[in-house]
């Protein structure tokens, strides 16, 4: 689901069968260079600050874009933008920003997500669900995308702290 002619495409690989099964039910968003297209021009305008940062480091970024219907409403298209340069990408790879075209405006609906992106057929609040990196599901709630992955439980942290304090003669001063 990419507009324009693809000069270079980015393909992401899932790491497990669980990731493959969840991502397989969605439509992958393919990112590619699309120089000179209207979407490329918009992506460069929307990412002007990050592009300037990369250029200050003498590293012109590779601009990869993709588009897909993200809203259940006809005509509202999403623009996926990934900038690639050593100045902008970290240990988790390069991140992607997602913008929704509403009227004359582009509204950022997801910021700095890393990994392969697929659009699921299920929707919440008029927006399709998204799978990132094979198993990280994002749903539209309360006017924004919310990650459905909950933080891992930390167990009995308070009890472990009290036990440590008792074993090591540390007085609990109540945080003062």
Automatic annotation (TrEMBL):
Region (Disordered): 1-30
Domain of life according to the entry: Bacteria
Protein name per UniProt: Uncharacterized protein
